[in-house]
Amino acid sequence: MRRLLLASLLCLVCACAVGRSAENVPLDAEKLHRLQPGTSTSREVVELLGAPVDVVQLGKRSAYLYQFTSTKTAALILLVANFYNSDQRADRAWVFFDENQILSHVGVTLAGGDTEYAMPWEDVHHQD
Hints:
single chain, alpha+beta, rod-shaped, Beta-lactamase Inhibitory Protein, Chain:B, domain 1
């Protein structure tokens, strides 16, 4: 009876928690593939992708940043120890323009949809 009572009390102080958050909307790979270096203008890029998160002036040239960030968090709360893990990944596109606001090149990373819930001892960054 004592063991059952002790186990019940321990369960009252143990808990699990999960959470997730996102900033902006995921980038659309199909829209990014429509961008044509040498022909797309900055106006066309904004019409297609919307307002950038950041605009950087590079002398007479410029760069626009488009970004989506996703975070997933998991926690195991025990009487003596707590375990917590947070996995944050992003979709990120840097769009570069020449001095005439014509697209020169694009750098893209699409990993925002790859976030995972996991404990600290789990490997969420799988190497293929």
